Amino acid sequence: MKTLKVSGTPRCIAWNPNPAICLCLVAVDQSLLVLNPGLGDKILISDTDSMIQNKETSEPAGKSPPLSWTVCEDDQYGEGYRFILSHPKEITHVSWHGKGDYFASVMPKGDSKAVLIHQLSKQRSQNPFSKPKGLVQCVYFHPIRPFLFVATQRYIRVYNLLKQELTKKLMTSCRWVSSMSIHSGGDNLVIGSYDCKLTWFDLDLSTKPYQTLRHHKKAIRQVSFHKRYPLFASASDDGTVIVCHGMVYNDLLQNPLIVPVKVLHGHKITKDLGVIDCEFHPTQPWVFSSGADGTIRLFT
Fold first, then answer.
1. Among the entry's GO cellular component annotations, what is one (predicted)?
2. Which residue ranges make up each domain of the chain?
């Protein structure tokens, strides 16, 4: 459909979850690119561009912003580049807020600027934390409430962004957290770790794991919940993707039900690396996986 040339190694890509906005984020070394890929409905593409241009810039008084936004013009604009956010250190992870206006970027070596939150409509960035809390692996926004989940090597911290305070600190019992995924209801999450454990947390029950699964033989690289079906998947260096049924009940007295469903083989292990990433289709019960063997596979 389209090829975009970038000046370094793309580490992470995130599509805007809002169906009315045609944008995606690409983390390339120390730059965060905001791109309009120009795919799909032409009215949607032009509406997105006019929304970006009619921005309301209001700089907060007193504080200087942690980084500046570069507006792309001419040739870059024609290729789809809209903004470039230059960070002081390498970016490893980016994620959007569910409404598609805010996004967060992670620089594990950025010390007090390890996590930055950016607002698209006002084109400004802010640094929510004054002190580093350890090596940050990834951050995600709560799907409904104003919470931010920050995963460091051993803990998951849940912050309330409105009150600007720490709400919960989850004990993962893992040596090194690799990935995290939040259920669409927001009260359950799964954590993958490099020491082969997959842990499920029910935030209403406890700050300790509700269940720990040890199905993988090697490090878990990625975990992912399905947006609509009661499914979650984990991708590992043992070359497999394991899909589990994870049912969350509306009845608060009933605990989640977790049942392994299927082990998906297909990727070849290359240089001791197996499946690097997995992601569910937004509406169908299909899972995409990308491996170190240089292939992306779709399991249906």
1. preribosome, large subunit precursor
2. 1-53+65-103+111-129
- 252 burial type by CB count under 10 A (0-12 exposed, 13-18 middle, 19+ buried): exposed
- Band (pLDDT 50/70/90 cuts) for residue 89 is confident
170-209 confidence digits (pLDDT tens): 888 888 899 999 988 888 899 999 988 899 888 888 888 8
Whole-angstrom Cα distance, residue 219 to residue 184?
Answer: 25
Contacts of 111 (CB under 8 A, 6+ apart): 132
Q: What is the pLDDT of residue 234?
A: 92
Instruction: Find residue 291's DSSP bridge partners.
Output: 275
- In Å, what is the CA distance from 58 to each residue of 54, 71, 113? 13, 16, 22
Element (H, E) at 47: helix 42-53
Return all residues near 195 (Cβ < 8 A) that are at least 6 apart: 174, 175, 176, 219
Q: Helices (H) and strands (E) in the chain — how many of each?
A: 2, 24
35/39 Cα distance (integer angstroms): 11
Encoded tokens for 257: 């039900």
Distance between CA atoms of residues 282 and 255, nearest Å? 25
User: What are the DSSP E strand ranges found in 20-120?
Assistant: 24-28, 31-35, 69-71, 81-86, 93-96, 102-106, 115-119
- 145 CB-near residues (< 8 Å, 6+ apart): 186
Q: Tell me how long the chain is.
A: 300
113 three-state secondary structure: helix
* 177-182 and 165-171 strand pairing: unpaired
